Amino acid sequence: MSGHVFFAHRYYGYDDALYAAVRLISVVGTSALSLAEIRDTLPALANAPELRIDCTEDRKFAVVEEVRARVRDLPHLDVHEVDGVRVTSADGWWLLRASNTQAVLVGRCEASDTDALDRLKAALAEQLRLSGLEPPDFG
Q: Of 132, 41, 57, nearest to 99 (Cα)?
C-alpha cells in the first residue's frame, strides 16, 4: 500500500526502488515467461485497506507491546516483532504497529479469501478490545 518493496530472498529488509526494479528485470530476464505471464501466476489475495485506529501518543506503543505479549506464545501462530507485531496464521496475516508521526495505530490484514480476511480482522479487533480500545468498523 505504501509502495515499499521488501525482499526475503538473498537479503531481508532492503527497501529501495532501484533495487526492486533491478530484481524484477533479473527475474524477467531469466524466465521463459513474460512479465504479464509472471503476474498472472501470483495468487489473488483479499486484503483490508489500511486500518487506522485512534490512540493517544502516550498509549500507542504500549498497546502494541500488550498485543505482542498476548500473541507471542499462542499455538498455531507465527509472530514477527519487527516494527510492531505481525501475526501469521492459517488464514493469512495481520499487522499492528504504532505510527511514528500520528496518534494512531495502523493495522493491515491479508488472506486468501474474504472469509479468512473477516476472521483476521476479528482477531485484530479482539486484541484491540483486550487493550481497552474500541476498534473502528473494519468493514
A: 57
Q: Are 110 and 45 in contact (CB under 8 A)?
A: yes
SS3 percent helix, strand, coil of the chain, rounded to 5, is 35, 20, 40
80's grid cell: 514477527
Query: Could you give the number of structural domains in the chain?
Result: 2
How many angstroms separate the CA atoms of 123 and 139, rounded? Answer: 14
Cα(50)–Cα(120) distance, integer angstroms: 14
Helices 57-71 and 114-130 meet at what angle, rounded to 10?
120
76 with 16, same domain: the answer is: no
In a domain, 94, yes or no: yes
Domain containing residue 14: 1-42
| Same-domain check for residues 17 and 58 | no
Q: What is the pLDDT of residues 65-120, one digit of tens each?
A: 999 999 998 899 999 988 899 999 999 999 999 999 999 999 999 999 999 999 99
Q: Does pTM top 0.90 for this prediction?
A: no
